[in-house]
Amino acid sequence: MTDLAILTATELLALYRSGQASPTEAAKAVLARIDRLNPALNAFCHLAPEQTLASAADSTERWRLGVPKGPLDGVPVSIKDLILTKGWPTLRGSRTVDPNQPWGTDAPAAARLREAGAVLLGKTATPEFGCKGETNSPLTGLTRNPWNTEKTPGGSSGGAAAAVAAGLGPLGIGTDGAGSVRIPAAFCGNFGLKPSFGRVPAYPLSPMGSVAHIGPHTMSVADAALAMNVLKQPDARDWTSLPPDRSDYTIGLNDGIRGLRIAWSPTLGYAKNVHPEVAAACDRGARLLAELGAHVEAVDPGFTDPLEISAHLWFAGTRAIWDTLTPVQREAADPDFAAQAARGAAIDMLEVQRLTLRRIELGSHMRQFMERYDLLVTPAVAVPAFDAKPAGHREMTLENFLGWTPFSYPFNLTQQPACTIPCGLTSDGLPIGLQLVGPMFADALVLRAARAFESARPIPRPAI
Question: Which are the catalytic amino acids?
Answer without folding.
Answer: 80, 156, 180
